[in-house]
From TrEMBL:
<dbReference type="Pfam" id="PF03576">
    <property type="entry name" value="Peptidase_S58"/>
</dbReference>
<dbReference type="GO" id="GO:0004177">
    <property type="term" value="F:aminopeptidase activity"/>
</dbReference>
<comment type="similarity">
    <text>Belongs to the peptidase S58 family.</text>
</comment>
<dbReference type="InterPro" id="IPR005321">
    <property type="entry name" value="Peptidase_S58_DmpA"/>
</dbReference>
<protein>
    <submittedName>
        <fullName>Peptidase S58, DmpA</fullName>
    </submittedName>
</protein>
<dbReference type="InterPro" id="IPR016117">
    <property type="entry name" value="ArgJ-like_dom_sf"/>
</dbReference>
Length: 332
């Protein structure tokens, strides 16, 4: 176990980013099609192919997920990932055609200091292709891929991941792109809201403060009164090796979403586009009641850890006025 989403067999992750652009793309790919669902709680999501994940929709499985910066421009990343998968002959077979199914979502990073004057066409399709081509069993965390330009109210953020195994032997992993309106740390201090769920000092081992003061509980919002829904979002992909149908995958996404509430303060605001994709590779049978409940509980804990790691592992952008990284201030 690497404490990554790719601890689930058959899952690969790749990044592509551009330092001048201060943005990027992350591709989550599956060796074989997987059952998937989506749960959206934020007020301003930006998504691609989300309708086919609805329980009433005909398509039962997908080939990957596209996560990108660039706001609505970043939705082009899915086309690049599709192109790479099509070249490998992977996708839904319809007659003689092969159509890779790649839902996706975006975060807003257009005003983080990077050069977004890309001309007629944004670069996200090409970045998506490069991310797919780079996908492997190991991947970097922090200011990489779709999390390259991500921020929170208090610190530079990025991409985090974590994994766990249930007592029954079911694996679950989470990947989070953290671009939240709120804060992932308690106040301005070194403590993470997700501290009770931390494992092996994976985000600094600071625990919680000895006491919570009113000042710590004050709302901190990125952009303060000027914050808008299009500027903030946390994207999560949860994958398990359990055997789930589409409604069960939806329930897993819903339960896993509570991990955001354990890691971000405040969360699920009108200012956010928070969502969770859930996918199941179908390797290990699971009890549909107690087993799924336990899986959802542990998935939520894993999501909170992934979010905290996305801030802990981030590095500051090299632009005037850029937010500091957590490690710049507290990793002494």
């Amino acid at each position: 176990m690497q404490n990554l989403l790719t601890d689930i067999d058959g899952v690969k992750v790749g990044h592509a980013d551009d330092a001048r652009l201060a943005s990027g793309v992350t591709a989550v790919l599956f060796d074989s099609p997987v059952v998937a669902a989506l749960d959206v709680r934020g007020g301003g999501p930006g998504t691609r192919e989300d309708a086919l994940l609805d329980l009433a929709s005909t398509v039962e499985s997908i080939d990957g997920f596209a996560l990108a910066g660039g706001s609505a421009f970043g939705l082009d990343a899915g086309a690049g990932i599709q192109a790479w998968l099509a070249e490998q002959g992977r996708g839904l077979k319809v007659g003689g055609a092969v159509i890779p199914i790649v839902p996706g979502a975006i975060v807003f990073d257009l005003i983080n200091g990077g050069d977004k004057a890309w001309g007629r066409f944004p670069p996200y399709r090409d970045l998506g292709y490069a991310a797919a081509a780079a996908a492997s069993d190991t991947f970097a965390l922090g200011s990489v891929g779709a999390g390259f330009g991500a921020t929170t109210a208090t610190f530079k953020a990025g991409l985090g991941s974590a994994s766990a195994v249930t007592p029954g032997g079911i694996k679950v992993g989470a990947l989070a792109v953290v671009n939240a309106a709120g804060a992932v740390t308690v106040g301005d201090g070194p403590w993470f809201w997700a501290a009770p769920f931390e494992r092996d000092g994976e985000f600094g081992g600071r625990g919680w403060p000895e006491a919570f003061t009113p000042e710590m509980l004050t709302m901190r919002l990125k952009g303060a009164a000027g914050a808008t829904a299009v500027e903030n979002t946390t994207l999560v992909v949860v994958v398990t090796d359990a055997v789930l149908n589409k409604p069960q995958a939806k329930r897993l996404a819903m339960m896993a979403q509570t991990g955001m509430a354990r890691a971000i303060y405040p969360v699920h605001a009108p200012l956010d586009g928070d969502l969770v994709f859930a996918a199941a590779t179908g390797k290990t049978p699971i009890d549909p009641l107690a087993g799924l409940t336990e899986l959802g509980m542990i998935a939520a804990n894993t999501v909170s850890r992934a979010i905290a790691r996305g801030v802990y592992e981030a590095t500051a952008l090299p632009f005037p006025g850029a937010l500091p990284a957590w490690k710049d201030r507290f990793a002494r």
